[in-house]
Design brief:
The complex is a heterodimer. Chain A is mainly α. Chain A contains 12 helices and no strands. Chain A has helices at 3-17, 30-34, 37-61, 71-80, 82-116, 118-133, 136-147, 151-174, 179-187, 192-229, 235-244, 248-276. In chain A, helix 5 crosses helix 8 (151-174) and helix 8 (151-174) runs antiparallel to helix 10. The two termini of chain A are 41 Å apart. Chain B is built from 7 helices and 10 strands. Chain B has helices spanning 52-59, 99-110, 114-127, 143-155, 173-190, 201-207, 241-257, and strands spanning 8-20, 25-37, 41-45, 67-72, 75-76, 84-87, 161-165, 193-198, 210-214, 221-226. In chain B, a hairpin with a 2-residue loop joins strand 4 and strand 5 (75-76). The longest helix of chain B has 18 residues, at 173-190. At the A-B interface, helix 1, helix 9 and helix 10 of A face helix 2 and helix 5 of B.
Chain lengths: 292, 265
């Protein structure tokens, strides 16, 4: 093939293979399903339909509010008592944020150490598994005994619960770099530091973010669980107190706000991923492959 | 004083490499000695798994011989030898970098001046027919184009030695013809010392000044041929009797070695 012919072949290539991750949808499905709008419209329609069904059941079925409050009443509560929810959200969000940051700050160096040292890998790996198998929710009461009813036990619970997926996916990521690529940069005179930042780190980022995404959703769970077990303030405390009062409306509104928080945090991570993962800005993807 | 013309530039001296596979020690290359002159194009053909790649990695200083020595310019290679470019069978382009950025990796690691490297990278890409593709990502390039980018990256710092490990093995026949011609042109301009490992006897004879034929593991040199073809060689040379006779002779060596057989095994 001459270079010119090859150029033509390459020009056609993106449409044939799909330039991003997802394969192109077959033609007959039509334009709408291929558009980005469909990604928002389809789940949006489903959610609205389900909420409408919920409203109808409550309105026309004569369900008591303490059993199942109507969605419109929940919405009204969420924004009507916005001040209370906002105030109680702050300690919860702070615990999520600090605990999550702690988990990332500990997980990444451990993953790096496990990649570079076989001794560390073989020593630490079984401990990681054991730490993951221990039911963390069952450990929560201990944290209260040790650290009281403040923020510290919450932060630790959050860190503990989101640590595992982050460290495991980071480990997979750091091992994804192809040995040939590492040999190549060594022959260019690269030291370990350069080989890490030019090759290992960018190869690892997609996988690290996969772990971070799982971690951030678990972080919300961790904070709420810690607040259930014992804390002086937070959305989880509000929720558990309201339950005691059979105030289902507040319970639902708290759950709704926790969902909003979790969703927003997830979106923040998504945006970070787009900014930090090289090649992602232009909508490109590459998959880190590798296993333990 | 200019060095004597025949002084060996690269020397493999009783090179031996064994691996401990867990199930016992396997000797990949045993007591192998050969030399290259500066500016020589040497091709190595041999069956799979005969330790050809090991030799290349040892020349690059990325692995050390179990015994024996590799010397460049009279000095033993004991750490990564950096006045050298490598091209692997898979292009090994970084998927998050464009063609140009992949070539410039070489300059970044070496901390070479930016503007100068950028200009040279663009020039090299243009010389292999990739002008206008500098901003493309590897998954937007064909296999042949990716391998050309890899070649440019290996040549960016104008190394004295070029090490190629089955670089065109994964390409289709037509692309392969074209890239062989391009490589010959580039080589004739700068006359670098090239060690080219391949499975293809045709490719070895077409490109090299000299062809070493390796035996199966543990590898030793089964035969050595000079290629008496003028340069630049044209694709039509492959139809000539000099070419076909030599290819036939090398195939004969493989038959003697039991690597090739007309009989069903």
């Amino acid at each position: 093939m001459s270079p010119t012919q090859e150029k033509n072949a390459a020009r056609r290539a993106p449409s044939a293979h799909g330039s991003g991750g997802a394969p192109a949808a077959p033609r007959r499905r039509g334009r709408f399903l291929e558009s980005k709008v469909a990604d928002w419209v389809l789940p949006g329609v489903l959610v609205v339909a389900l909420v409408a069904l919920w409203q109808a059941i409550v309105s026309f079925g004569g369900v008591e509010e303490y059993v199942l409050p109507a969605p419109l009443d929940v919405l009204d509560k969420m924004f009507g008592d916005f001040g209370t929810f906002a105030e109680q959200s702050v300690p919860t969000i702070v615990a999520i944020f600090v605990g999550f940051a702690l988990a990332v700050a500990v997980a990444l160096p451990i993953a790096v150490a496990m990649v570079y040292s076989e001794i560390v890998r073989r020593a630490v790996y079984p401990l990681l598994i054991i730490a993951q198998v221990v039911p963390k929710v069952a450990v929560a009461p201990l944290f209260i005994i040790w650290f009281g009813f403040g923020q510290l036990p919450k932060v630790l619970m959050v860190a503990l619960i989101c640590f595992f997926p982050i460290v495991i996916d980071s480990l997979v990521g750091f091992r994804a770099a192809r040995p040939e690529s590492l040999m190549l940069v060594r022959s260019m005179g690269a030291g370990r530091w350069q080989a890490f930042w030019k090759i290992r780190w960018p190869w690892a980022l997609p996988s690290i973010f996969a772990g971070v995404k799982v971690g951030i959703t678990l972080a919300v769970v961790g904070a709420v669980v810690a607040e259930f077990v014992g804390a002086d303030k937070g959305l989880g405390v509000l929720l558990i107190t309201a339950r005691g009062d059979m105030d289902s409306l507040t319970v639902f509104a708290s759950i709704a706000w926790l969902t909003v928080i979790g969703f927003v945090l997830f979106l923040v991570v998504e945006v970070l991923e787009r900014v930090l993962v090289p090649g992602r800005k232009s909508g490109r993807t590459f998959e880190a492959s590798g296993s333990l | 004083m200019a060095p004597a013309a025949a002084a060996p530039y690269v020397e493999f001296d009783a090179f031996t490499k064994s691996f401990d596979t867990g199930g016992g020690v396997v000797t990949a290359v045993s007591e192998m000695s050969f030399e290259l002159e500066r500016g020589e194009f040497l091709a190595i053909v041999g069956p799979s798994g005969c330790g050809k790649s090991t030799l290349l990695m040892a020349l690059a200083g990325l692995t050390q011989p179990t015994s024996g020595q590799v010397r460049v310019g009279g000095e033993a290679v004991l750490k990564p030898y950096t006045d050298l470019g490598i091209v692997f069978q898979s292009a090994e382009l970084l998927p998050w970098r464009t063609a140009l950025q992949n070539v410039l990796l070489q300059a970044e690691i070496r901390k070479a001046p930016k503007a100068e490297s950028d200009a040279r990278a663009r020039e090299l890409l243009a010389r292999v027919g990739l002008k206008g593709f500098e901003g493309r990502y590897p998954d937007e390039l064909s296999g042949g184009m990716r391998q050309r980018v890899a070649l440019c990256r290996a040549l960016l710092h104008d190394p004295e030695i070029l090490v190629m490990d089955e670089p065109f093995g994964a390409l289709d026949a037509l692309t392969r013809d074209q890239i062989q011609i391009d490589l010959q042109r580039l080589w004739m301009e700068r006359r670098k010392t090239v060690v080219f490992v391949t499975h293809s006897i045709d490719e070895a004879v077409f490109l090299a000044d000299r062809v070493l034929v390796f035996s199966p593991r543990p590898a030793r040199i089964a035969a050595e041929f000079r290629v008496p073809l003028d340069r630049p060689r044209h694709l039509s040379a492959r139809a000539g009797s000099v070419f076909t006779d030599l290819v036939g002779e090398i195939r004969g060596v493989f038959e003697t070695l039991g690597v090739l057989s007309e009989e069903a095994k």
